[in-house]
Structure formats: structure tokens, C-alpha cells
Request: fold
Amino acid sequence: MRIASIVLNAVIVLDMLLITVLFFKKDGKWAFSNIKRPLRYFTFLSNVLCALASLLMIIFPDFIPVWLLKYVGTVAVTVTFITVLVFLGPALGYKRVLEKHDLWMHLINPLLALASFCVCERRPMSVWQALLGMIPVILYGLFYGYKVMLAKEEKRWEDFYGFNKGNKWYISVLLMMLGTLIICAGLMAVQTLIKL
Reply:
């Protein structure tokens, strides 16, 4: 299982390293300012978090805080995966959200993270540890809500996820929190209860 864990985590690290480097290039030019746009998206941020956790998992596989960080990163990319499957895919079209680097960040990396965490990196998990998986969604949700609804007009973001359509952001918040909680509970069940 250790070799499988290393391989799966290494693929996540390497593909995110490549994707991040490619974000620095736009219209054939390299510029640090090009990375600002992807930094707005939970998809990119969750994949970077997962890649960082995957790198640390390769180096420190038995260190519990690293394992917890890998769990948090796995929850974050799973949220991205489920959001694309049930919300963004139907709204924008699956071809659009599953092409080029989005295929890796929306589908392949989440599946690799789930496989490595649920099969290769299993250990018992408490409820309190499971709730740590909520942190990225809560933090990003607060930041996104501020930038979409409360920031000064010139610094405001468009609602690119469409979570505030019709001023019904509270429904999106409820669904995202509930969905993330279900993902956390599911991963805790696989880690603690289900014998593979």
C-alpha cells in the first residue's frame, strides 16, 4: 500500500505543478500576474492544497498532522468533484468543465486523492477530526461571499459560480455545508467503519 500511496500522491503533485506553471503563461507570454485569476477559484485552491498535502504525505506518511491535512485536501477536491458533477456540469456543460486542465482538477485529482486516502492511507478517525474537512469550504465561502456581495464595486467579483442567483445565496450556503458534511461523514465511515 505504501508504494501505491506514493505513486498516487506523486501524480497529484506533478500534475498540479505542471498546471500551476502553465497558468503563468497566457497568449504565449509568461507573467506572474497571470496566476491571479486561478487564485479566485475553489477548484484551483483545493487542488493546490491537496497537492501540498500529497507531497507531505510522501515525505511524512506516519505524521498524524500531515494525514489530517491530506484528509482536508481530499475533502476539498471531493467538494469540487461533486459540485462539478451535480451543479456546474449540468449548468455549463460537462464538455466545458472537463476539458484540458479542468479534467485533472475536477475529476482525475479528486479520484486519485480519494483512492489514496481511502485505500492506502486508512486509519481510524474521530468526529472532531472529520469536522476539520469543513474548514476550506467555510473559509472560501466567507471570502467568496464577501467578494461577490460586499466588496467595493471596483473590487467585486462576478458570481462566476452562480451561487447568488436571485439573491438566494443562503440556499447555496446550506447545500454546500450539508454536502461537505456528508462528504466528511462518508470519508470518516470509510476510514473507521468499513473494512476494505
User: Anything to note?
Assistant: The longest strand covers residues 25-26.
